[in-house]
Backbone:
């Protein structure tokens, strides 16, 4: 049908360009997945009875939207969803409007590496729990590291996203541990 | 670290691989320790000590804001330089967010100190 043929060099260049374009597309940064940030623990394990089905997530601040041309980040909505689902999982989440305790979170930031084979990210967050009267019940500063090994993903941007998600998951786990210590 | 362990410990190490591994090790984020919202000694703070700490926190936060802007500008310059000159420069971008983390932590610490002032019945200015 068509006699037009590329020279071997041109053909190679075309395939190389396609490959590079695909790699660049695959290398675009994507935001953290809330489901991967959920802390999974046994329901009700060791939590004060007063907190059962009585805790709501009110405000999350400090998160950042992901710029696809830069690095993966954790946004407020994603963090809020992960924390809400974590609280639901352990039986602490209260129905909206009937919450006895409200949680505000200030995501101070993520300490990320610029590059690496195994990437360690540390999340820093302040968790503030208030009772219905506005009195602080818990003010906790949590720094939680997570290392995404090379085996988790070959792509650096993906590995960094996994490290972010792991660091937030570890942070929520530490927060749940602190909730267990509240005397109520 | 992993790469340096994998390659640098061998009998016939490749200098280039070791250099690469070392350069990657230098890419790790700086260790950041934000000030905690509450301190074990908070109950012993007097009202004037609380005021003093709040004031010094504000000054430190303002300084960190300035530094944070400088780091952001340096990062932009490094990214541009990595495109124009060499991709290796991108590895020196600072993503530790140290200044931002410490600055926000100081703001939250002051929020906790304000609550402490109310709890202790300190006069509000």
Residues:
């Amino acid at each position: 049908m068509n006699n037009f043929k590329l020279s071997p060099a041109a053909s190679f260049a075309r395939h190389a360009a396609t490959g590079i374009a695909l790699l660049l597309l695959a290398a675009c940064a994507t935001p953290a997945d809330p489901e991967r940030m959920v802390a999974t623990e046994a329901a009700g394990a060791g939590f004060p009875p007063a907190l059962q089905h009585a805790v709501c997530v009110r405000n999350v601040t400090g998160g950042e939207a992901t710029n696809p041309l830069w690095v993966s980040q954790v946004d407020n909505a994603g963090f809020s969803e992960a924390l809400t689902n974590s609280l639901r999982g352990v039986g602490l989440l209260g129905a909206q409007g009937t919450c006895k305790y409200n949680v505000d979170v200030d995501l101070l930031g993520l300490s990320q590496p610029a590059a690496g084979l195994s990437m360690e990210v540390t999340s820093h967050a302040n968790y503030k729990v208030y009772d219905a009267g506005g009195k602080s019940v818990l003010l906790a500063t949590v720094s939680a590291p997570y290392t995404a090994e090379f085996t988790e993903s070959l792509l650096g941007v993906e590995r960094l996203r996994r490290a972010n998600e792991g660091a937030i998951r570890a942070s929520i786990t530490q927060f749940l541990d602190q909730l267990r210590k509240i005397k109520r | 670290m992993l790469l340096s362990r994998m390659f640098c410990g061998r009998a016939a190490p490749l200098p280039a691989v070791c250099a690469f591994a070392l350069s990657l090790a230098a890419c790790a984020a700086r260790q950041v320790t934000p000030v905690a919202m509450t301190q074990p000694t908070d109950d012993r703070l007097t009202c004037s000590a609380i005021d003093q700490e709040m004031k010094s926190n504000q000054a430190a936060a303002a300084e960190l804001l300035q530094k944070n802007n400088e780091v952001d500008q340096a990062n932009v310059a490094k990214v541009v330089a990595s495109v124009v000159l060499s991709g290796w420069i991108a590895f020196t971008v600072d993503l530790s967010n140290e200044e931002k983390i410490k600055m926000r932590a100081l703001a939250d610490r002051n929020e906790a100190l304000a609550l402490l002032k109310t709890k202790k019945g300190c006069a509000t200015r």
